Amino acid sequence: MTHSSPAPNATADVRTHEGVLTYPDRTPSAARVTAQHRDAKARASRAALTWAVGWALAVAAVFLPVLHFILVPLLFVGSPMLAWQRLREPATLIQAEGACPACGDRRTFQLGGAWRERTSLRCEACGRALALVLPEAPASS
Description:
By secondary structure, the protein is of the alpha+beta class. The chain has one domain. The chain has two helices and six strands; from the N terminus they run ββααββββ. Mean pLDDT is 88; it is low at 1-6. Helix 1 runs antiparallel to helix 2. It starts with 11 loop residues before the first strand and ends in an 8-residue tail after the last strand. A six-stranded antiparallel sheet has the order 4-3-2-1-6-5.
């Protein structure tokens, strides 16, 4: 799964971790994973911004004929839910570098999702579904 990578900011700490790329019935290969770690203050400000932008979009959506019946409730309920998710996310995966265990091609995978112990990827060279296995999530600050 490919996502756009988040832009690192001044209040976040970008670190490198070791992980493993796996494919069934093949030898796993080492991967270097870059993750953006946020302290509690950075997570709170990111969550507040998410919530505020969502509700601002909900107010703007009131003026869209017919669409406002769907967009306003969706943004009104979805914004706090997304903000809560971002508040609880101590680290965001940016990218992983390593050789595909299926075809051996060295790749850089753009991630952009929350830190998970197992993340699904797809090799662009051979098209096979891979798994990025990481250690336990780092402790939040």
